[in-house]
Write a structure and sequence with these properties.
single chain, alpha+beta
Length: about 150
């Protein structure tokens, strides 16, 4: 085959440090736009960005040359700096880890819809419950002692 064709979609989930509720609703949409801009700047595609006051969800498409760990590290670093400098939220930090789940192209719309409904979703389920469900559904082994 003379060329490469890929469909690489990732649902990323990461929380604020200690799940502190520091992402204010007054500027949350600006943070989500900023995160999407960071993805665009590295030549990725931000398909959906959302979340609540203590965590973020992104559905992004990447190229095979991207290294997922580097992408997430950079997303978290520059967005923390943005929250400090632009929003004056000095206590806004992301947790060290993250969740990354592959998404098949036919399922992208459902994930986008899910991300768009985060506020509504979290009236019924906590972040911890949600994240454990992602791990179970993804078949990811984990030790609960090291999740939170």
């Amino acid at each position: 085959m003379p060329s490469t064709h890929c469909s690489l979609h990732y649902h990323l989930v990461f929380s604020t440090k200690d799940r502190q509720r520091v992402i204010a609703s007054a500027w949350r949409d600006r943070l989500h736009s900023y995160l999407g801009g960071v993805v665009k700047n590295i030549d990725g595609i931000p398909e959906a960005v959302g979340g609540t006051d203590d965590h973020a969800h992104l559905l992004i498409s990447l190229k095979p040359t991207h290294r997922l760990a580097d992408v997430v590290r950079d997303l978290k670093a520059v967005s923390s700096r943005w929250m400090h400098e632009q929003m004056g939220e000095r206590s806004a930090l992301w947790q060290d880890g993250y969740g990354a789940f592959t998404v098949g192209a036919p399922d992208c719309k459902a994930v986008c819809d899910y991300i768009a409904r985060q506020e509504e979703h979290h009236r019924r389920q906590t972040f911890q419950e949600e994240y454990l469900e992602f791990l179970r559904r993804g078949g990811v082994e984990y030790d609960e002692r090291y999740l939170w």
